[in-house]
Amino acid sequence: MLINPEISMRVGRIDDPAKRMLGWLVRYSVAGRHTRKFFSDLVFGTSAEAKAAAVAFALAHLGEHTEIRSLRTRLMPRKNTPHGVPGVARYIRPGGTSAFWTAYWTRDGVRQQKKFSVALHGEHDARELAFSMRAEMTADSAERLAELLEIYAPDRAGPAKKAAHRPKQKVAEPARAAAPSRRPKPSVGSDRRENRRQA
Fold it and tell me: Segment Disordered: which positions (predicted)?
C-alpha cells in the first residue's frame, strides 16, 4: 500500500495487455523537466517486485526535488505581482498617511522583513532598496537552487541564477541645484566701441 502522498502521485499502475504494458509507471516533473520510467512485471518477475523498484526510483531524489520546488516558489519571478519579484511589496498605512516598500524573507524558519519609507527615500529609491535587501538576504538560497538545478534540470539553472540574483541598484543621491551662470561683465573699451557704432 502506497502511504506517501508524493509517491502516490509519482507512481501508478499500468494494465494494458494490448500494448503488453503490465507494470508500474513513474512520472514526475522537476522545474519543468519531465521524467517517465516504466517498471515491467515481466522484467522484475512479479507485480510486487516491479512496484518496489518503481517506489525506490521515485524516492531516490525526492528530498532534493521537494527542496527545488520550495526554493523556486520563494525565489522565481511571478506574473501575479506588478514588478515580478517575490518577497517585495508596497504598502500604505491605514488612512493613506504614508507608504513604504518592504522586503521580507525567511531565515531559519522565522519570517523577517525590512521597510523603506517612500517619504524618506523617494518612490524609486525605496523600491530599489527593498529589491537589494531581498536579494542580499536570499543569496544563499539562490545559490542552493542554482546548484540543485545544475544537477536535476541544467537547462533551468541559467534563468534561475538571473532571476534570483537581482543586481544591486545604486541609490542616486539628491541632485544639487546648479549655480546660476554669470555673464561676463563688458569692459569699458567695448562699451565705447558699441556707442560709436550706434552713433
Answer: 156-199
151: Cα separation from own chain's centroid = 19
The number of beta carbons lying within 10 Å of the beta carbon of residue 128 is 20
Whether the CB-CB separation of 26 and 10 falls below 8 Å is answered with: yes
Query: How many CB atoms are located within 10 Å of the residue 4 CB?
Result: 13
| Radius of gyration, alpha carbons of the chain | 32
Domain boundaries, the chain: 5-60, 68-164
C-alpha to C-alpha distances, 154 to 53, 117, 150, 188, 191, nearest whole angstrom: 26, 40, 4, 79, 79
Task: List, as one string, the DSSP characters of 52-89.
Answer: HHHHHHHHTTHHHHHHHHHHHHHHS--TTSSS--TTEE
- Each residue of 65-86: pLDDT tens digit? 999 999 998 898 877 777 888 9
DSSP 19: G
- Give me the mean pLDDT over the 53-66 stretch: 93
